[in-house]
Amino acid sequence: MKKFNALKETENIINFIRDYYQKNNLGGAILGISGGKDSGVVAALMVRALGSENVIGVTLPCHSKDEDAIDAKLISDYYGFKLINFDLTKIYDTFKLELDNLGSFNEEELKNSDINIKPRLRMATLYYLAALYSAVNKKTYLVAGTSNKCELFVGYFTKGGDSVHDIAPIADLTVDEVIQIGGVLKVPEKVLYKKPNDGLSNQTDEDKLGVSYKKIADYMEDKNSVSNEEAEKITKLHQNNLHKFNIPTYRKKM
Protein backbone atom coordinates (compact mmCIF):
# COMPACT_ATOMS: atom_id res chain seq x y z
CA MET A 1 0.00 0.00 0.00
CA LYS A 2 1.36 3.41 -0.99
CA LYS A 3 2.08 5.68 1.97
CA PHE A 4 -0.23 8.70 2.18
CA ASN A 5 1.73 11.95 1.92
CA ALA A 6 -0.55 14.42 3.73
CA LEU A 7 1.59 17.47 3.04
CA LYS A 8 1.79 16.76 -0.69
CA GLU A 9 -1.92 15.93 -0.98
CA THR A 10 -2.84 19.12 0.89
CA GLU A 11 -0.95 21.16 -1.69
CA ASN A 12 -2.48 19.11 -4.51
CA ILE A 13 -6.03 19.80 -3.28
CA ILE A 14 -5.33 23.52 -2.85
CA ASN A 15 -3.95 23.69 -6.39
CA PHE A 16 -6.94 21.69 -7.67
CA ILE A 17 -9.33 24.25 -6.15
CA ARG A 18 -7.37 27.26 -7.41
CA ASP A 19 -7.07 25.85 -10.92
CA TYR A 20 -10.80 25.10 -11.14
CA TYR A 21 -11.73 28.58 -9.92
CA GLN A 22 -9.32 30.29 -12.31
CA LYS A 23 -10.38 28.24 -15.35
CA ASN A 24 -14.06 28.90 -14.69
CA ASN A 25 -13.79 32.54 -13.57
CA LEU A 26 -15.26 31.79 -10.14
CA GLY A 27 -15.05 33.98 -7.08
CA GLY A 28 -16.00 32.44 -3.75
CA ALA A 29 -17.21 29.45 -1.76
CA ILE A 30 -20.06 28.82 0.65
CA LEU A 31 -20.23 25.77 2.87
CA GLY A 32 -22.12 24.50 5.86
CA ILE A 33 -19.99 24.47 9.00
CA SER A 34 -21.21 21.69 11.27
CA GLY A 35 -18.44 21.91 13.83
CA GLY A 36 -17.02 18.56 12.70
CA LYS A 37 -13.76 17.52 11.07
CA ASP A 38 -14.97 17.30 7.48
CA SER A 39 -16.40 20.80 7.23
CA GLY A 40 -13.47 22.13 9.27
CA VAL A 41 -10.93 20.65 6.86
CA VAL A 42 -12.85 21.76 3.76
CA ALA A 43 -13.13 25.29 5.17
CA ALA A 44 -9.38 25.33 5.80
CA LEU A 45 -8.67 24.11 2.26
CA MET A 46 -10.96 26.70 0.68
CA VAL A 47 -9.38 29.50 2.74
CA ARG A 48 -5.89 28.39 1.75
CA ALA A 49 -6.91 28.18 -1.90
CA LEU A 50 -9.08 31.29 -2.23
CA GLY A 51 -8.34 33.54 0.75
CA SER A 52 -10.54 33.96 3.81
CA GLU A 53 -12.30 36.98 2.27
CA ASN A 54 -13.75 34.68 -0.41
CA VAL A 55 -15.13 32.00 1.91
CA ILE A 56 -18.47 32.15 3.75
CA GLY A 57 -19.38 29.54 6.34
CA VAL A 58 -22.96 28.92 7.39
CA THR A 59 -24.27 27.33 10.56
CA LEU A 60 -27.70 25.81 9.94
CA PRO A 61 -29.13 24.79 13.31
CA CYS A 62 -32.32 22.76 13.32
CA HIS A 63 -33.01 21.54 16.85
CA SER A 64 -29.22 21.22 17.06
CA LYS A 65 -26.71 21.07 19.89
CA ASP A 66 -25.21 24.39 21.07
CA GLU A 67 -21.76 22.75 21.02
CA ASP A 68 -21.90 22.47 17.22
CA ALA A 69 -22.29 26.25 16.83
CA ILE A 70 -19.46 26.84 19.31
CA ASP A 71 -17.13 24.54 17.36
CA ALA A 72 -18.17 26.15 14.06
CA LYS A 73 -17.21 29.57 15.43
CA LEU A 74 -13.90 28.13 16.61
CA ILE A 75 -13.15 27.19 13.00
CA SER A 76 -14.28 30.51 11.51
CA ASP A 77 -12.33 32.51 14.10
CA TYR A 78 -9.20 30.44 13.52
CA TYR A 79 -9.25 30.78 9.72
CA GLY A 80 -10.78 34.26 9.60
CA PHE A 81 -13.73 33.69 7.28
CA LYS A 82 -17.23 35.12 7.62
CA LEU A 83 -19.70 32.94 9.52
CA ILE A 84 -23.45 33.31 9.08
CA ASN A 85 -26.07 31.71 11.28
CA PHE A 86 -29.29 30.70 9.49
CA ASP A 87 -31.62 29.00 11.94
CA LEU A 88 -33.88 26.44 10.25
CA THR A 89 -35.73 25.34 13.38
CA LYS A 90 -38.93 27.33 12.71
CA ILE A 91 -38.88 26.38 9.03
CA TYR A 92 -38.59 22.70 9.96
CA ASP A 93 -41.36 23.01 12.55
CA THR A 94 -43.66 24.70 10.01
CA PHE A 95 -42.90 21.96 7.51
CA LYS A 96 -43.82 19.35 10.10
CA LEU A 97 -47.12 21.09 10.84
CA GLU A 98 -48.17 20.60 7.23
CA LEU A 99 -48.08 16.84 7.80
CA ASP A 100 -51.24 17.19 9.87
CA ASN A 101 -53.07 17.69 6.58
CA LEU A 102 -51.88 14.29 5.35
CA GLY A 103 -53.00 12.18 8.29
CA SER A 104 -51.56 10.69 11.46
CA PHE A 105 -48.14 9.01 11.52
CA ASN A 106 -46.23 7.36 14.35
CA GLU A 107 -42.67 8.19 15.39
CA GLU A 108 -41.12 5.17 13.70
CA GLU A 109 -42.83 5.97 10.39
CA LEU A 110 -41.59 9.57 10.54
CA LYS A 111 -38.04 8.87 11.72
CA ASN A 112 -36.23 8.53 8.40
CA SER A 113 -38.14 11.35 6.73
CA ASP A 114 -37.48 13.68 9.67
CA ILE A 115 -33.75 12.94 9.60
CA ASN A 116 -33.42 13.48 5.85
CA ILE A 117 -35.49 16.64 5.48
CA LYS A 118 -32.95 18.54 7.58
CA PRO A 119 -29.97 18.18 5.21
CA ARG A 120 -32.31 18.94 2.30
CA LEU A 121 -33.42 22.19 3.95
CA ARG A 122 -29.80 22.98 4.67
CA MET A 123 -28.65 22.44 1.11
CA ALA A 124 -31.51 24.53 -0.29
CA THR A 125 -30.41 27.30 2.06
CA LEU A 126 -26.76 27.07 1.00
CA TYR A 127 -27.70 27.38 -2.67
CA TYR A 128 -29.99 30.32 -1.91
CA LEU A 129 -27.16 32.08 -0.09
CA ALA A 130 -24.65 31.21 -2.82
CA ALA A 131 -26.90 32.89 -5.39
CA LEU A 132 -27.53 35.84 -3.08
CA TYR A 133 -23.87 36.55 -2.33
CA SER A 134 -22.95 36.01 -5.97
CA ALA A 135 -25.32 38.87 -6.80
CA VAL A 136 -24.26 41.07 -3.88
CA ASN A 137 -20.50 40.63 -4.36
CA LYS A 138 -20.55 40.43 -8.17
CA LYS A 139 -18.67 37.14 -8.31
CA THR A 140 -19.79 33.52 -8.50
CA TYR A 141 -19.92 31.50 -5.29
CA LEU A 142 -19.90 27.70 -5.35
CA VAL A 143 -21.27 25.40 -2.67
CA ALA A 144 -18.43 23.24 -1.37
CA GLY A 145 -19.19 19.62 -0.46
CA THR A 146 -17.87 18.07 2.74
CA SER A 147 -18.42 14.32 2.25
CA ASN A 148 -15.43 11.98 2.60
CA LYS A 149 -14.70 8.73 0.75
CA CYS A 150 -15.83 6.41 3.55
CA GLU A 151 -19.23 8.09 3.83
CA LEU A 152 -19.71 8.04 0.10
CA PHE A 153 -18.75 4.38 -0.26
CA VAL A 154 -21.47 3.21 2.12
CA GLY A 155 -24.01 5.79 0.94
CA TYR A 156 -24.03 7.71 4.21
CA PHE A 157 -25.50 10.88 2.77
CA THR A 158 -28.90 12.26 1.84
CA LYS A 159 -30.12 12.43 -1.74
CA GLY A 160 -30.86 16.07 -2.49
CA GLY A 161 -29.08 17.06 0.71
CA ASP A 162 -25.37 16.70 1.41
CA SER A 163 -25.04 14.79 -1.87
CA VAL A 164 -25.50 18.11 -3.70
CA HIS A 165 -22.52 20.46 -4.16
CA ASP A 166 -20.41 22.15 -6.82
CA ILE A 167 -16.91 21.09 -5.79
CA ALA A 168 -15.77 18.11 -3.70
CA PRO A 169 -12.34 18.65 -2.09
CA ILE A 170 -12.26 15.57 0.19
CA ALA A 171 -14.47 13.03 -1.60
CA ASP A 172 -11.46 10.83 -2.41
CA LEU A 173 -10.06 10.89 1.13
CA THR A 174 -10.77 8.37 3.88
CA VAL A 175 -11.57 9.65 7.37
CA ASP A 176 -8.00 8.99 8.51
CA GLU A 177 -6.65 10.88 5.50
CA VAL A 178 -8.98 13.80 6.23
CA ILE A 179 -7.57 13.91 9.76
CA GLN A 180 -4.01 13.88 8.42
CA ILE A 181 -4.84 16.74 6.03
CA GLY A 182 -6.42 18.57 8.96
CA GLY A 183 -3.19 18.13 10.90
CA VAL A 184 -1.23 19.77 8.10
CA LEU A 185 -3.73 22.65 8.03
CA LYS A 186 -3.67 22.92 11.83
CA VAL A 187 -7.42 22.43 12.24
CA PRO A 188 -8.13 22.87 15.98
CA GLU A 189 -7.88 19.48 17.69
CA LYS A 190 -11.24 19.89 19.44
CA VAL A 191 -12.85 19.76 15.99
CA LEU A 192 -10.42 17.45 14.21
CA TYR A 193 -10.78 14.62 16.72
CA LYS A 194 -14.44 15.16 17.54
CA LYS A 195 -16.47 11.96 17.33
CA PRO A 196 -18.40 12.18 14.05
CA ASN A 197 -22.17 12.51 14.20
CA ASP A 198 -24.82 13.85 11.86
CA GLY A 199 -26.07 16.50 14.27
CA LEU A 200 -29.57 15.30 13.45
CA SER A 201 -30.39 12.01 15.14
CA ASN A 202 -28.37 12.21 18.39
CA GLN A 203 -26.36 9.17 17.28
CA THR A 204 -22.76 8.97 16.14
CA ASP A 205 -22.16 8.08 12.49
CA GLU A 206 -20.61 4.78 13.48
CA ASP A 207 -23.54 3.91 15.76
CA LYS A 208 -25.90 4.37 12.84
CA LEU A 209 -23.72 2.50 10.37
CA GLY A 210 -22.90 -0.36 12.73
CA VAL A 211 -19.25 -0.32 11.63
CA SER A 212 -16.31 2.04 12.11
CA TYR A 213 -14.91 4.31 9.43
CA LYS A 214 -11.53 2.66 9.90
CA LYS A 215 -13.02 -0.71 8.99
CA ILE A 216 -14.70 0.83 5.94
CA ALA A 217 -11.35 2.25 4.82
CA ASP A 218 -9.66 -1.12 5.43
CA TYR A 219 -12.38 -2.87 3.41
CA MET A 220 -11.94 -0.48 0.48
CA GLU A 221 -8.21 -1.23 0.50
CA ASP A 222 -8.52 -4.99 1.00
CA LYS A 223 -11.82 -6.79 1.64
CA ASN A 224 -9.98 -9.62 3.41
CA SER A 225 -8.57 -7.26 6.05
CA VAL A 226 -11.85 -7.11 7.99
CA SER A 227 -13.93 -9.84 9.61
CA ASN A 228 -16.61 -11.66 7.63
CA GLU A 229 -19.32 -9.95 9.70
CA GLU A 230 -17.85 -6.50 9.04
CA ALA A 231 -17.39 -7.27 5.34
CA GLU A 232 -21.03 -8.36 5.07
CA LYS A 233 -22.24 -5.14 6.74
CA ILE A 234 -20.10 -2.89 4.55
CA THR A 235 -21.01 -4.77 1.36
CA LYS A 236 -24.70 -4.54 2.19
CA LEU A 237 -24.47 -0.80 2.95
CA HIS A 238 -22.62 -0.18 -0.31
CA GLN A 239 -24.95 -2.25 -2.48
CA ASN A 240 -28.16 -0.98 -0.86
CA ASN A 241 -27.15 2.63 -1.53
CA LEU A 242 -25.91 2.34 -5.11
CA HIS A 243 -29.20 3.89 -6.24
CA LYS A 244 -28.05 7.18 -4.73
CA PHE A 245 -25.31 7.60 -7.32
CA ASN A 246 -27.22 7.21 -10.57
CA ILE A 247 -30.62 8.25 -11.87
CA PRO A 248 -32.01 5.58 -14.21
CA THR A 249 -33.01 7.39 -17.37
CA TYR A 250 -35.09 5.82 -20.12
CA ARG A 251 -33.58 6.28 -23.58
CA LYS A 252 -35.75 6.10 -26.70
CA LYS A 253 -35.41 2.82 -28.59
CA MET A 254 -36.07 4.37 -32.00
Fourth-tier CATH superfamily name = HUPs
List SSEs in N-to-C order. Answer: HEHEHEHHEHHHHHH
Radius of gyration: 19 Å
CATH topology: Rossmann fold
Give the overall form: globular
- Helical content (DSSP H or I, runs of 4+): 40-55%
Total number of distinct structural domains = 1
Strand order of the largest sheet: 3-2-1-4
Structural class: alpha/beta
Average pLDDT score = 93
CATH architecture, by name, is: 3-Layer(aba) Sandwich
CATH class: Alpha Beta
Counting DSSP E segments of at least 2 residues, the number of strands comes to 4
Report on the structure:
- With 254 residues, the chain is an alpha/beta fold.
- The chain has a single domain (6-195), classed as 3-Layer(aba) Sandwich (Rossmann fold).
- The chain is 52% helix and 7% strand.
- It is built from eleven helices and four strands.
- The chain has helices at residues 6-23, 37-50, 66-79, 89-98, 107-137, 149-153, 175-184, 189-192, 205-209, 213-221, 228-240; strands spanning 28-32, 55-59, 82-85, 141-143.
- A four-stranded parallel beta sheet has the order 3-2-1-4, sandwiched between helices.
- Strand 1, helix 2 (37-50) and strand 2 (55-59) form a beta-alpha-beta unit.
- Helix 1 (6-23) packs across helix 2 and helix 2 (37-50) packs parallel to helix 3.
- The N and C termini lie far apart (48 Å).
- The model has no long low-confidence stretch (mean pLDDT 93).
